[in-house]
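Milestone M4 deliverable, item 7.
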Amino acid sequence: MFARNTFLPGLDSKLCDEILKEVEDVCRVDMYWNDAHPGMGEGQVKDGQGGEEGWELMYVRLRGIARWDGEKQI
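Output delivered:
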């Protein structure tokens, strides 16, 4: 949605469309749900009778702390 103007601004429209389609195809396996491949999308009926589908992005925020004991990083 933002990649065209942010990451691909210097490419012609046809090449940009091809790249975005390839990215979509790669992401579809894990991020697109429908009755055949249910996810947890908003409004989805979980019994397989929903007839809805959509994209879903899941993420995990990781945080870490680096400490120094004077001799080595622990």
